[in-house]
Amino acid sequence: MSAPPAVLELTGVRVERGGRPVLDVPSFRLAAGEIVALIGPNGSGKTTLLLTLMGLLPRAAGSARFRGEELEAGGRRIALILQECLLFDGTVEDNVATGLRLRGAGRAEARRRVAAYLDRFRLTDLAGRAARKLSGGEARRVSLARALVVEPEVVLLDEPFSHLDAPTRQAITDDLEAAIRETGMAAVLVTHDAGEALRLADRIVVMHEGRIVQSDAPAEVLNHPVNEFVASCVGMETILEGEVRSRSGWELEVAVGDATVAAVGDAEPGDPVHLCIRPENVVLEPVAPGPTSARNVYPARITGVASIGPYLKLRLDCGFPLVAHVTAESYALLGLAPGRHVHAVFKATAIHLIRRARPAGVAPAPAAAPAGRAAADGR
């Protein structure tokens, strides 16, 4: 089955600032109807890539094409939505109609489309209200309706939900996705929220220092990050450095400091590795558990607690650092508190193993017998 045609495509693109490269993208392709999420820390090049796709930044090298033709700056078939709403004076209806008026749409057609997008973004009852008097969530809905009412082929969004509370963010995100999917637009969304990327995107692109380090389906990026940087971007809050001590089939014993961790993966004795563990895969037990399928069971002390929305993030000392998430209800029920001793439990199959480069001139260490792990049989 052939791939959908590309709407936007970059080839060999390099953007410089003050003679220093800030974007280096050998290739980027946005397919028709595809939603791509760009994630990465501040300064990773996400917004620079977005502005390059809009044709707003000069390129030191490479080509940018829209439907196979050279990209024109600010093309009328591409909409850009920034963090700030930047609404005009006038009513909500006036703002939504702005783009259609600029494009010379007829009155009847403009009225029809404005009414449709006011309804789509739940703004019908606010049509006559002054745009300057809207709440943050209402203003964001107006900015989205204004950009999408002209029905561009591509919409580029630069963290459009960053200043909204969680319930408002969720509701507007749902309406935006419905609008994009139903009209068949392609979209590129810059976000710091990995959960938002996983929920919305057909593909996630992870950026670091102006380069694309992984581009794949959300499940692939989430479960098989290519390196420890990507792992940290998609919520693997525990990333341990270790060295493989022994291998039996796909089962590995990995030395992490003075402890040994059971993992599953493709590595050889002596290989340096990263062990990446999601906090939701760590179970806490107030006392040592009985027989369990989890091969990794460690006495641990709670060293810190922080609230993150509906969960509490617990930092643990198991002889190595570990992060676990628990609900507030579980925290109270188990009598957890900073300084409390518990047992941390996680399966070998819950670990994502990434091979690290061995330092130059360092030979593999001889395999050693497993030691320092409290474990039960199984994975």
Descriptive key words:
379 residues; alpha+beta; Rossmann fold; OB fold (Dihydrolipoamide Acetyltransferase, E2P); 6-stranded mixed sheet; 5-stranded antiparallel sheet; 9 helices; 20 strands; 23% helix
Brief sketch in words of this structure:
With 379 residues, this protein is α+β, with helices and mostly antiparallel strands.
- The computed structural class is alpha+beta
The main β sheet shows up as:
6 strands, mixed
Give the end-to-end Cα distance, rounded to a whole number of Å.
38 Å
Supply the number of helical segments.
9
Q: Please report the total strand number as a whole number.
A: 20
Query: Class of the largest domain, according to the CATH hierarchy?
Result: Alpha Beta
Strand arrangement in the largest pleated sheet: 6-7-8-3-9-10
Mean pLDDT, all residues: 88
CATH architecture of the largest domain: 3-Layer(aba) Sandwich
For this structure, the CATH topology of the largest domain is Rossmann fold
The low-confidence parts are 365-379
In CATH, the homologous superfamily of the largest domain goes by the name P-loop containing nucleotide triphosphate hydrolases
- Global shape: globular
What's the order of the H and E elements? Answer: EEEHEEEHHHEHEHEEHHEEEEEEEEHEE
Relative strand content:
35-45%
- The number of domains is 2
Q: Helical proportion?
A: 10-25%
- Radius of gyration (CA) equals 25 Å
